[in-house]
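User: Can you help me understand a structure? I only have the sequence.
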Amino acid sequence: MDVARSTEIRVGIVSILSIALLIGGIMLGKGVSFDPSRKQITIRAESSGGVESGSPIVVNGVKRGQVTAVVNQNGTVLISAEIDDVSDLHADAKARVMILEITGGKKIEIIPGTPGTSFDASKEIPGTISADLSQLVATLGDVSGNAVSIVRRLDSLSGTLTELTRDGQLVSDVKTISSEGAVFVKDLRSWFAANKDPLGQSIRDLRAIASQLRTSIDRNEPKVSRLIDRLDATLTSIDGTLVRADKALGGADTLVRRLDSVIVEFRASKGLINSMIYDVQFAERFDSTLYWIRAILQDARNKGVNVNVGLGHE
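Assistant: Let's start by predicting it. Here is the structure, written out as tokens:
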């Protein structure tokens, strides 16, 4: 009994050890760790790109952790991961989902960022998806239909070019144009060769003129500046004069309106001035009165005035 029980105990111990080793191997293979120094980070990407729990996290090519969860959130994907150390990461760190091996698998490569800014593990790291072989195949499949139409168009273009080359007149015209173009280029080269020195002298003269103009401008710049200042002051004075003239014209216009209103009042009223100006009969009577007054004064001047004055009469 003791031997059988001892055997059972040994078998149990071996079984427990085997299960523990199996669990430990699985956890080691998956990268599961209970290290309290590990930091939790989150990565925000448009899609998972094939990343799943257990996918490795790599910093500069060195494995530093693994993905713990991948969930859809607000139209994007939130990837949670654990990493051994974040001391070499910075505030502008970025993540990129890349192919792990040619046969499959994905990893997340973290780009540390620019030194000088501290990394905050509570903030999300922006992530992008790198193109892989499957995406390339899908893209080729999408453009394969267009490739057929492109080949057909190239075939049609080739046929058209063949028909054109069969036209002897067209070929002759092209040869003629090519020959005339060669002759033109030859003549042009000859002309440049014959006039190279005069052209060079003209260019040098133009440079000298430009230099003299620049020197003259630099020399006369203060005078020009003073002239511009005087012109500006003159324009300001003219502007003030125009303002005063405008005010004077406004005053004259007001005076004219007032005179016009006075004339209207004279015309509308029946006073002495209105009668003198507009009443014909009054004017005739007034003229007659002036005539008799003038006659009396003339008669007094010629004959004198007889004045009978009595003093002391009661």
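Now, to help you interpret it: The first strand starts at residue 39 and ends at 45. Residues 35-137 form one domain. Let me know which part you'd like to focus on.
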